[in-house]
Amino acid sequence: MYVLFTAWMIASVVFQVLFNWISRKINYGYGKKMEYMAIGLNMLVWGIFYAKWVSPTIKEGFQPMQLLFIIVCTVLIWIIFIDLKYYEIPNSYNAFIALAGVFYITQTGDSWLNFLLGGIIAFVLFFLIAIFTGGNL
């Protein structure tokens, strides 16, 4: 049990370090302090996922969609820190999340209409915020 949890935490650190390296390669690096904060936040998120999903389902088997969700959360953590420093989100990260969403929909068989409606609502809300703030928050 503790060996699996330790391996899980090491994997969370490896993923975050890998993605910090990718961010630096595409010219979106951030300082060591923010990298350590990102690693800590990623470990916290992965620890919560372990407690909620992995630990209770060890006997039933881990679901691939859960792994996809965890990786998308790791990408969102990078996006937080990149956006805090550069005030923009790299298109490659947006594309990854979009592709992960399409993969999720095709694998689970959920209705496209629900996801499309959610996307339209989010777009309208952010569009209204951009109009009323003049694009400056």
Question: Any overview of this molecule?
Answer:
- The protein has helices at residues 2-25, 32-54, 64-86, 91-108, 112-133.
- The chain has 137 residues and is mainly α.
- α1 (2-25) packs antiparallel against α2, α2 runs antiparallel to α3 (64-86) and α3 (64-86) packs antiparallel against α4.
- The longest helix is centred in the N-terminal third of the chain and has 24 residues, at 2-25.
- The radius of gyration is 17 Å and the shape is globular.
- The termini are far apart.
| Mean pLDDT across every amino acid position | 82
CA-based shape: globular
Biggest sheet character:
none
As a percent range, the share of helical residues equals: over 70%
Count of alpha/pi helices: 5
Structural Rg: 17 Å
User: pLDDT below 50 for ≥5 consecutive residues: which ranges?
Assistant: none
Could you give the distance between the termini? 46 Å
Strand and helix layout:
Elements: H1 2-25, H2 32-54, H3 64-86, H4 91-108, H5 112-133
Helix pairs in contact: 1-2, 1-3, 2-3, 3-4
Keywords:
single chain, 137 residues, 0% strand, 80% helix
Question: In brief, what are we looking at here?
Answer:
The protein has helices at residues 2-25, 32-54, 64-86, 91-108, 112-133. By secondary structure, it is an all-alpha fold.
